[in-house]
Design goal:
Layout: E1 6-9, H1 34-43, H2 47-64, H3 66-72, H4 77-85, H5 104-117, H6 120-124, H7 126-136, H8 142-153, E2 157-160, E3 175-179, E4 182-189, E5 200-207, E6 210-217, E7 223-227, E8 241-249, E9 254-256, H9 264-293, H10 310-342, H11 350-380, H12 382-385, H13 397-407, H14 412-425
Parallel strand pairs: 1-7, 2-5
Antiparallel strand pairs: 3-4, 4-8, 5-6, 6-9, 7-8
Helix pairs in contact: 2-5, 5-9, 5-10, 7-9, 9-10, 9-11, 9-13, 10-11, 11-13, 11-14
């Protein structure tokens, strides 16, 4: 993985274990996970146990610098490198290809813990997680195997699907064109989360009227990536602009969009939900720590120490309850998404459709709840510590800003309607949606 290649930079109880200390396998097509299963039965430990033992020291190191990076707007190139070196990019890759062979619920546990260390990091890997899943569900063969080994070796993939401007809904202004004996890509993308850190970016494009996805090497001269995302939260995800100027594309790296794995929207949302659960856990952890250490009290409080004040305890109890609820909801969504993964080889059957509907509905239900409760929990912090909680040095405001930003992805009002229509009328949810300028009504 490269260190950096940006062309411009703008400055614009517990829920999970703490980063420092603590207070059913899916077999991909054509790949065996038997060695992981053998490890479970022989030792009583699980692959998740081994992964967390390996990654928790990295998470602790990431958490130590989270506030400083946020305050100074330092993109986490080093933390991404630490994670990749520790095998974070291979968590779902089958053991036969050098990966950890985690299930989707196990992956979600890891994402929550990373989100509690730094909410930016799981979102950075969101595009990578989805592309790994797409390769897991691809037809067994040489090209699929090459990608799985790339992931195991530490190569990661970013995302470049969205465009700004007046493009029509469902269309792409980015074009893949034939130039002699080669393919070239031209266009501009925004919300390109993770691509600035990655060797590859996963791009949607138009090829002579058909929608395709394209894998593009980011290190070539025809790719310019800028850190110009100006959101007030999740500021360090590298969610900026990519400009493609005759960027070269290998024909083997072009696929029809309709061939993507069916449950991708639910998986993308699962990552964001895990981020919210991580934010809730960090909010609880940092609030409880600050209250334990606080010696100053208000004269009209009800105890000589804040930690013993029943009113403050009740507020922290609300925060803790949100953190627990978030954890439980993410686990439920992860199980539903795993169900869709398990039926992917039965694509378009009634069983597969039912599994995908459930995954999409469960992710939407959790989004409806957590989009409100986690930002609220991050606001309650300021009821416990008074004005001192607003100190920039403490960085407690980042939890609300990050939670509110994550909750603004995939507008929740539409998800609530979709869930309601399903509940009342049994209407299946949309699996793919897009944004753009509405076409004229006939």
């Amino acid at each position: 993985m490269k260190q950096r290649h940006t062309t411009s930079t703008s400055e614009p109880g517990r829920a999970v274990p703490e980063p420092v200390e603590g207070p059913s396998d899916h077999e991909a097509p054509g790949a065996s996970t038997s060695s992981a299963a053998d490890a479970r039965s022989a030792t009583g430990a699980t692959p998740l146990d081994a992964v967390l033992a390996r990654l928790r020291p990295v998470f602790a190191r990431i958490a130590d610098g989270a506030v400083a990076r946020e305050q100074e707007h330092v993109l986490p190139f080093e933390p991404v490198r630490w994670l990749v070196d520790a095998g974070f990019g291979r968590l779902r890759v089958p053991t036969d290809f050098g990966g950890d062979g985690l299930t989707i619920p196990e992956l979600a546990e890891v994402l929550i813990e990373l989100g509690a260390a730094d909410a930016n990091l799981p979102q950075i890997f969101r595009g990578h997680i989805a592309f790994v899943e797409d390769r897991l569900q691809a037809t067994p063969g040489g090209e699929r195997d090459v990608w799985l080994r790339r992931f195991a070796a530490g190569e990661i993939v970013g995302n470049a699907w969205s465009e700004t401007g007046n493009g029509a809904i469902g269309s792409s202004q980015t074009r893949l064109e034939r130039r002699g004996d080669r393919w070239v890509l031209n266009g501009r993308k925004f919300y390109t989360t993770g691509s600035i850190f990655a060797e590859w970016t996963d791009v949607t494009a138009d090829r002579e009227g058909e929608s395709v996805t394209v894998l593009v090497r980011t290190g070539q001269s025809g790719v310019a990536i800028s850190d110009d995302w100006d959101g007030f939260g999740q500021q360090l995800t590298g969610t900026g602009t990519i400009v493609f100027t005759d960027a070269e594309v290998d024909e083997a790296h072009v696929s029809l969009f309709d061939d993507r794995f069916r449950y991708q929207t639910a998986l993308y949302q699962l990552v964001l939900l895990a981020v919210l659960a991580g934010i809730a856990a960090a909010t609880e952890r940092e609030t409880a720590r600050a209250i334990r250490e606080r010696t100053r009290v208000y004269s009209h409080g009800v105890a000589s120490l804040v930690r013993d004040d029943a009113q403050i305890q009740a507020v922290v109890g609300e925060i803790s309850s949100v953190a627990y609820t978030a954890l439980a909801l993410v686990r439920g969504v992860a199980e539903a998404v795993q169900g869709a993964a398990d039926t992917a080889h039965l694509r378009d059957t009634e069983e597969d459709l039912a599994a995908n509907v459930l995954a999409e509905i469960r992710s939407a239900q959790a989004q409806v709840v957590l989009s409100e409760s986690v930002p609220r929990a991050a606001t309650l912090v300021f009821n416990t510590l008074g004005a001192s909680a607003t100190s920039r040095a403490k960085g407690l405001d980042r939890h609300w800003r990050n939670a509110r930003t994550v909750a603004s992805h995939n507008p929740v009002v539409y998800k609530a309607r979709i869930v309601g229509d399903w509940s009342i009328n049994g209407t299946p949810p949309p699996f793919i949606w897009s944004i753009g300028t509405a076409l004229p009504t006939p």
